[in-house]
Amino acid sequence: MTPPLPEPSKQPTSAETPSTKTLKFSKQRLALAFAIAGISDAIGAFVTPLPPIGWVTDVATALLLFLVLGRQWLLLPGLALEAIPGFGVLPFWLLVVGAIAVLGTPRPTFERH
Distance between CA 96 and CA 65 in Å, rounded? Predict the structure, then answer.
């Protein structure tokens, strides 16, 4: 007969502990952020032939979303993607706000020794 296996400890291992912490936003803030993103994407789709207007719209959108949602690093890739000519017709701002709403803000957790 084989001896019974020892019971694993109840302490979570580093693989089981969440490595990110997410922030939750109020429904009003998310609704406002989605409205800003939707309006910006609609404007961006029509001003694609006029890049300076699109740039101003995108920078204003990033600033407004920064004010509504706080310091979100996920806003920077959205701004970079909107700066690529021709991509203004895709709803990147809506995708960015959706990602922030679903994922929250990734925050590293530092273990104390």
Answer: 10
Residue 85 pLDDT: 76
pLDDT tens, residue by residue, 29-78? 999 999 999 999 999 888 878 888 888 999 999 999 999 998 888 888 88
* HSE-CB of 85 using CA atoms within 13 angstroms: 4
Determine the 3-state secondary structure of 67 from DSSP. Answer: helix
The C-alpha atoms of residue 27 and residue 7 are separated, in whole angstroms, by 44
Q: Which helix (H) or strand (E) holds 49?
A: none
Place of tokens 């970079």: 80
Q: Give the closest residue to 77 by CA, choosing from 49, 48, 97, 101.
A: 97
